[in-house]
Amino acid sequence: MVFAVFGVHAQGVVLPSDTAVHEPAEVIPAAVKAFSGRWEGKWDERMPHVLVVEEIKSATEATVLYAWQAPPAANAWNAGWARFTATIDGNILRVPLSEGKKAWYELQADGSLKASYTRPNSSSQSNAVLRKVQP
């Protein structure tokens, strides 16, 4: 059952028109179900980011939509989105992005997600706090 369908914009980030969140099955643990939905924040307090956990397939796997807005710096990179298969390990959702990039999201006691992002061959790490947005 689909319980939410979103428009094409969220926090200035363009999402595909088929973005939808499917209600997790009853057999999925509540702690894992907590990941389901649309989350918004900003990488390093400057670049808007939206994570939509569209479908939780099992207690250890989910389909996610990872979307971002172009950063304020000119000639950096374009906005975009992509779907990935994420893994869930306890309170951490790991998203293997393209080209060796990685993002992970840790559920916090206050209901937010603490997010981190790394690139291969780089010692820097971007961070964000994402909040769930109800449809």
Strand line-up of the largest beta sheet: 5-6-7-8-9-10-11-12
Helix content: under 10%
Shape-level CATH architecture: Beta Barrel
Q: Please tell me the overall pLDDT.
A: 87
- List segments where confidence is low: pLDDT < 50 over at least 5 consecutive residues: 1-8
User: Structural class, from helix and strand content?
Assistant: mainly beta
CATH topology term = Lipocalin
User: Any idea how many domains?
Assistant: 1
Order of helices and strands: EEEEHEEEEEEEE
Outline type: globular
- Largest pleated sheet: 8 strands, antiparallel, barrel
| Number of beta-strand segments | 12
Task: Describe the overall structure.
A hairpin with a 2-residue loop joins strand 6 (47-58) and strand 7. Residues 1-8 have low confidence and may be disordered. The radius of gyration is 14 Å and the shape is globular. The protein has one domain (2-133): Quinohemoprotein amine dehydrogenase alpha subunit, domain 2 (Lipocalin). With 135 residues, the chain is mainly beta. The protein is 3% helix and 55% strand. The chain has 1 helix and 12 strands. The strands form 3 sheets. An 8-stranded antiparallel β-barrel has the order 5-6-7-8-9-10-11-12. It has a two-stranded antiparallel ribbon with strand order 1-4. It has a two-stranded antiparallel sheet with strand order 2-3. Residues 116-135 are annotated as: Disordered. Residues 118-128 have a biased composition (Polar residues).
